[in-house]
Amino acid sequence: MIILQALLASLLVACVSFVGALLFGNARLLERLERYIAPVAVGVFLSLVLFEILPETLSAAPTYGGIAVALGFIGFYVLANILHTRYHSVGGREACSKKGTGMLVLIGDAIHNVADGVILGGAFLVDPTIGMLTAVGLALHEVPQEIVEFGVLMRAGYSRMQAVLYNFLSASSIFIGTMLVLVLAAYGEGYMWILTGIAAGNLLYLAASDLLPRIHGELPEYGSVWRSAWWITLGFAVMTVTLVWTHAQFGHGHSHDNEHEHEHEREHAELHKEHQSDEHDAYEESQEKHDMHHDDDHDAHDDHHHEE
User: Fold this and answer.
1) How confident is the model at residue 87 (pLDDT cuts 50, 70, 90)?
2) Taking Cα atoms as reference points, which of 57, 111, 48 lies closest to residue 82?
3) Most confident of the following: 14-23, 224-233, 262-271, 280-289
4) For residue 187, how far is the Cα from the chain centroid?
5) What span, in angstroms and rounded, lies between the C-alpha atoms of 146 and 107?
6) How far is residue 53's CA from residue 198's CA, in Å, rounded to a whole number?
7) What would the pLDDT profile of 44-66 be if each residue is shown by its tens digit?
8) How far apart are CA 53 and CA 59, in angstroms?
9) What contacts 225, CB < 8 A, 6 or more positions away?
10) I need a labelling partner for 189 at 20 to 30 A (CA). Which of 147, 153, 233, 272 fits?
11) Separation CA 92–CA 158 (nearest Å)
């Protein structure tokens, strides 16, 4: 069931690639959306990390969970810089007219979407509801990027239909990352905290080192620092309230269900041990009675032999 939900969430994020075809060319609408989407996505990611994924990771591994989060943050930083240098800045703006550069952009975006799949899969390991909410956050984060990349493909000489198809295929690589995490978790349940920790570090990087500097560097387009802070706070508050409500309505997810399951197994094992202990005591008591009866028979036989 969780695999199906994760695949549906991945499909949701991948379908954001179609937004580029819908909004490309409408600069005024794009500017208005960008002004709200990026700050809200920052608040959504911060809430998911601070109230859900990070606590789950540290609860499962209090000593080493922080290391997994740091690795996720640093790893995403390195990956983002490699992609930016290798694929998104090849040849400058003039090179965007070449199909080769457009293909490099697609390859870079595909690798980036695999990483997004790791984030999404890690969120589903915490809770399916958290996974769906993370998918919403990732979709918001992808909207401006997909529009820009669609424009790059159009300027590179691809037809509108080709740009839509190739952009969707590139976005579909999110399925690889999601399934990779879920498969690894299936064979190493005791180490799921590593995957959730990496996902937490990735989301922290997206919020604090990718989206936030972009907002800060283009404040005139976002209104002011106070307006951006307001939309960040709104995204954070809405997501936090949503998390609290979903926990109250549907419980805390399969991670805690696993704890209850393990507790039930422990209780069953204890009852089985007690049952075995009772059987052992009954057997020893039976043996004692048998020995006593045997001794009485032996004494009676000796008395009878003595009388003779």
Assistant:
1) low
2) 111
3) 224-233
4) 17
5) 13
6) 10
7) 889 888 988 898 889 889 999 99
8) 10
9) 216, 219
10) 272
11) 18
